């Protein structure tokens, strides 16, 4: 979840909420040994490593670099249950596929929260850049970062912050909304969108260079 009170940004534990997002991320909530808290110029950021072998399933429009696809057999029991439901509620009948494709999240870093004393001063950006540097140095993650943006103060969402840095929703319709907002160049009234966001590989340079003066 995310809040912008005093520019405290807290990232949710992985369950998408609101606005009809098709994303989902099933996480193990036990404390991870890989949890890290880093302080960068008064900004504090917490993140942990997600591992492929934990088989955390996701949905939505992910870049292939972020997910491993696995085709699994649909059990006869599951097929029979769906047929029973269709008969009971007189639903339109259709033939269920015997196989389905499951997406597993690859090794990546997940941001849990960011806190910074004030907004628009670049401290939060530098904190995220620090996580990216670690993700790039980690041969397992290769720069992959995921965040779950949620509203916890009832008023604001961190979607605009992360979108400007190069993160994208796994729901394409939300990215269209964000792009329209960005073209208007509005610093306030961030779109109150929530859900899973990730950093596409092609946007790594954008994040690394964001806000840097040469």
What's the quick description here?
The protein has helices at residues 76-88, 123-137, 159-165, 172-183, 204-209, and strands at 8-10, 24-25, 36-40, 43-50, 57-59, 67-73, 99-105, 108-115, 145-149, 168-169, 195-198. By secondary structure, it is an alpha+beta fold. It has 2 domains: 5-65 and 107-209, Gcn5-related N-acetyltransferase (GNAT) (Aminopeptidase), CATH 3.40.630.30; 68-102, no CATH class.
Largest sheet: 7 strands, mixed
- Classified by CATH, the class of the largest domain is Alpha Beta
Number of strands: 11
- Supply the helix-strand structural class: alpha+beta
What average pLDDT do the residues reach? 79
Rg estimate, integer Å? 19 Å
Quick one: CATH superfamily of the largest domain?
Gcn5-related N-acetyltransferase (GNAT)
What's the number of structural domains? 2
Secondary structure layout plus pairing:
Blueprint: E1 8-10, E2 24-25, E3 36-40, E4 43-50, E5 57-59, E6 67-73, H1 76-88, E7 99-105, E8 108-115, H2 123-137, E9 145-149, H3 159-165, E10 168-169, H4 172-183, E11 195-198, H5 204-209
Parallel strand pairs: 8-9
Antiparallel strand pairs: 1-8, 2-5, 3-4, 4-8, 5-7, 6-7, 9-11, 10-11
Descriptive notes:
- With 214 residues, this protein is α+β, with helices and mostly antiparallel strands.
- It folds into two domains: 5-65 and 107-209, Aminopeptidase, CATH 3.40.630; 68-102, no CATH class.
- Helix content is 25%, strand content 25%.
- The chain contains five helices and eleven strands; from the N terminus they run ββββββαββαβαβαβα.
- The chain has helices spanning 76-88, 123-137, 159-165, 172-183, 204-209; strands at 8-10, 24-25, 36-40, 43-50, 57-59, 67-73, 99-105, 108-115, 145-149, 168-169, 195-198.
- The strands form two sheets. Strands 1, 3, 4, 8, 9, 10 and 11 form a seven-stranded mixed sheet that branches. Strands 2-5-7-6 form a four-stranded antiparallel sheet, with no helix packed on it.
- The radius of gyration is 19 Å and the shape is globular.
- The chain starts with 7 loop residues before the first strand and ends in a 5-residue tail after the last helix.
- The model is unreliable at 1-33 (pLDDT under 50).
């Amino acid at each position: 979840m995310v809040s912008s009170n005093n520019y405290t940004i807290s990232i949710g534990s992985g369950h998408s909420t609101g606005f009809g997002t098709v994303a989902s991320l099933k996480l193990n909530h036990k404390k991870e040994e890989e949890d890290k808290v880093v302080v960068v110029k008064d900004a504090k950021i917490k993140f942990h490593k997600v591992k492929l072998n934990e088989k955390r399933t996701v949905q939505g429009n992910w870049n292939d670099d972020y997910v491993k696809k696995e085709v699994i057999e649909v059990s006869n029991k599951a097929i029979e249950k769906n047929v029973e439901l269709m008969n009971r509620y007189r639903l339109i009948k259709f033939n269920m596929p015997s196989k389905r494709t499951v997406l597993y999240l690859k090794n990546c870093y997940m941001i849990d929260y960011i806190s910074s004393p004030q907004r628009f001063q670049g401290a939060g950006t530098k904190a995220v850049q620090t996580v990216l540097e670690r993700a790039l140095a980690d041969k397992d993650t290769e720069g992959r970062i995921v965040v779950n943006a949620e509203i916890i103060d009832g008023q604001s969402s961190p979607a605009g912050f992360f979108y400007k840095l190069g993160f994208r929703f796994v729901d394409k319709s939300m990215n269209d909304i964000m792009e329209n907002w960005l073209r208007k160049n509005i610093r306030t009234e961030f779109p109150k969108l929530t859900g899973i966001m990730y950093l596409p590989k092609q946007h790594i340079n954008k994040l690394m260079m964001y806000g840097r003066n040469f």
